[in-house]
């Protein structure tokens, strides 16, 4: 009689379990599609091909500078409240430096009041808010002519305090930047404030003007030919550089270093993601099972998409290098068949004593029969 009937029965049961479960990091796409079909397909499976790349590039956001920002051309500086002026009347030091020559220039400055007026000897208060330097020079010259013969007047702005732009977000030095007689460009303001490269989302620089928000892809516009250098800032503008907290790609499965990758640039490709984490594991990964899982905000109205790349194809590197990631994408690398089988066997080790026990029980049963 066979000594191992119970052992064979136990092994049969274990192999039956192996047929029922799929251990290891593996995406059963056939079963997934079948289940989704029964649920009116919440997920769409798409093979990454040149045609798919063309379709993906067609839905990329417009990265050009909005025409509305290029339409603004700075005018001559207009005076406003709290601006500091140094007014020179040649041959009349009592008007130019009433505090005396020994005082600093700033001490002899004339400051525009909060209501936009300026007081000056002999001529009284003048509404200067909105005037240019030249316009104010002419007004003072004309009024002083009543008291001084052919006055020679010169005006310099030594304190630009009325017109400012605000910078916030991932800047090294956020705060205010003054608009001066020299036009201030967006690139100059960003350069002076400095970018916090570890925290910044360079694809999302918001310029808020008159209540309207213009979102600029700073990374793309500064690395490609564009008109970003022709954007001039005006008083009241706000620049906000977004944080990259939500700009992540999640990598899991059969890779060297599963992780969540933060990126601040506007473009990150699938090949860059795989290279950053050390690539698919050569020993355990399946070359045919590289997936990009892209969710949607509302599954009731949209389908989530799972892109599949056959990394064994000769053109796989080219396709991966052209496939652009989006924030919150999940890259999943599946396991090879032998890896799944090895993991299944390793999961049986805690239950190996079942086989041993079955063998011993069978042996004891035969010995008992022989003794009788």
From TrEMBL:
Its membrane topology: Multi-pass membrane protein
Signal peptide positions (record): 1-26
One Pfam entry name: Poly_export
GO cellular component terms given for this protein: cell outer membrane; pore complex
Domain SLBB, chain residue ranges per copy: 163-240, 248-333
Keyword terms of this UniProt record: Cell outer membrane, Ion transport, Lipoprotein, Membrane, Palmitate, Polysaccharide transport, Porin, Signal, Sugar transport, Transmembrane, Transmembrane beta strand, Transport
Boundaries of every Outer-membrane lipoprotein Wza C-terminal domain copy: 336-363
InterPro entries: Poly_export (IPR049712), Poly_export_N (IPR003715), SLBB_dom (IPR054765), Wza_C (IPR040716)
Places the protein is found: Cell outer membrane
The Polysaccharide export protein N-terminal domain, residue ranges: 73-157
GO molecular function annotation: polysaccharide transmembrane transporter activity; porin activity
Record GO biological process: monoatomic ion transport
Domain of life: Bacteria
Sequence similarity: Belongs to the BexD/CtrA/VexA family.
Protein name stated in the entry: Polysaccharide export outer membrane protein
């Amino acid at each position: 009689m066979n000594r191992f009937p119970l052992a064979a029965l136990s092994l049969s049961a274990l192999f039956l379990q192996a047929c029922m479960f799929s251990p290891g990091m593996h995406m059963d796409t056939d079963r997934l599609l079948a289940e989704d079909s029964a649920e009116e397909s919440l997920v769409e499976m798409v093979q990454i091909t040149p045609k798919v790349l063309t379709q993906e590039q067609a839905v990329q956001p417009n990265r050009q500078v909005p025409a509305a920002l290029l339409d603004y051309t700075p005018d001559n500086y207009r005076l406003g409240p709290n601006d500091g002026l140094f007014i020179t009347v040649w041959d009349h030091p009592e008007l130019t430096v009433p505090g005396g020559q020994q005082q600093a220039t700033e001490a002899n400055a004339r400051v525009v009041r909060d209501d936009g007026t300026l007081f000056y000897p002999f001529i009284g208060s003048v509404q200067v808010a909105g005037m240019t330097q030249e316009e104010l020079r002419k007004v003072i010259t004309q009024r002083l002519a009543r008291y001084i013969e052919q006055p020679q007047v010169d005006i310099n702005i030594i304190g630009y305090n009325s017109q400012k732009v605000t910078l916030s977000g991932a800047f090294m030095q956020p705060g205010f930047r003054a608009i001066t007689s020299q036009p201030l460009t967006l690139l100059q303001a960003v350069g002076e404030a400095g970018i916090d490269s570890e925290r910044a989302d360079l694809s999302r620089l918001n310029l808020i003007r008159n209540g309207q928000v213009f979102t600029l892809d700073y990374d793309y516009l500064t690395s490609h030919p564009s008109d970003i250098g022709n954007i001039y800032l005006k008083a009241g503008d706000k620049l906000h550089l977004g944080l990259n907290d939500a700009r992540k790609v999640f990598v899991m499965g059969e890779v060297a270093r599963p992780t969540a990758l933060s990126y601040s640039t506007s473009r990150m490709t699938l090949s860059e993601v795989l290279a950053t984490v050390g690539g698919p594991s050569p020993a355990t990964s399946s070359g045919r099972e590289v997936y990009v899982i892209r969710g949607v905000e509302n599954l009731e109205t949209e389908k989530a998409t799972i892109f599949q790349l056959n990394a064994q194809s000769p053109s796989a590197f080219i396709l991966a290098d052209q496939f652009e990631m989006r924030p919150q994408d999940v890259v999943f690398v599946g396991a090879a068949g032998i890896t799944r089988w090895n993991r299944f066997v390793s999961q049986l080790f805690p239950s190996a004593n079942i086989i041993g026990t079955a063998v011993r029980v069978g042996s004891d049963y035969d010995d008992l029969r022989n003794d009788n």
